[in-house]
């Protein structure tokens, strides 16, 4: 009987990954239709102007109030120092540098490591978040450690070479830097722990200090704080003419994928995003009944979101917004969403449905949503692309390959090694 039950569970998961079980799309908040939020009427959206100037600012405010918390005021981080770490890193392919940015008012000290190809610029750049510090991103111990040190799980990946197989672990901590450089991309990295350490007991004070004027129920959450970090890195990169300000991509996986989604939604300077297996609070719909629920994520990680988000744990259908609208805030910029068949906790189908439901905003702006015919075969030229691969939670070599193909398609730099 146990074997039969296990088989049924596996079959159900596979069927769900193929879209056999779908969220009722009619239950989603209308993305272009009129609606009311706390007595304020949001009128029907009929033009790009309506979306950009009327609907989008209100949605950003609602997402901050109800899900992510109020972002910090536009306070700059000052450049404290900048050094060259290696003039000929990765066998001479790139120049590795590191900068320190800080704000006494926000109690923030952010280390940004970055590598540029040795070829003439300005270069398109990929900004990544480092689970295990900038040293892991570039496999270089000379780079600064994040505030509070490294999480314990980082030890097993230290000095581990990339595997021959498409294993989903090492590429979480060490992107394929050499391949990215050969394809013409600069890479910048920051550690989220420099902003807020991922600990529910210690995170609340620094989160409050980053925006002390926020109402208690709208207190800044760590996801949005980490997303704000991408914007602070962009502030710095845009002062350096070696980087192309019109080709700035961001990548995030899992909790960092949630952060990347907020960054792209709230910062129009981000030109392209790859949010991989970002799950609830990322690309997947909050209303979806599959995988990690709002009550799970706010119970386990109460520091990630505004306290208000937890109030919808018993009935996410009461939420006045959902993630298709967050994707709509990124429009018409390109979005790539990745998922794994065995990663049902991150709700792959909910991310696909959010992408489809965001399509009307892209169409309103003269662009297209997903044009692919199956979940497994993304159209890299589309403005919204999605892929479902075999395997579990993690980032693989092939995931990065798809990301680079997506950037090549949209940044028009098909420079493959």
UniProtKB/TrEMBL annotation:
Residues 1-22 form the signal peptide. GO terms for molecular function: carboxylic ester hydrolase activity. Residues 217-366 form the 4-O-methyl-glucuronoyl methylesterase-like domain. Transmembrane segments: none annotated. Pfam families: GCE_fung. InterPro entries: AB_hydrolase_fold (IPR029058), GCE-like_dom (IPR054579). Keywords: Hydrolase, Serine esterase, Signal. This is Acetylxylan esterase. The lineage of its organism: Bacteria, Pseudomonadati, Pseudomonadota, Alphaproteobacteria, Caulobacterales.
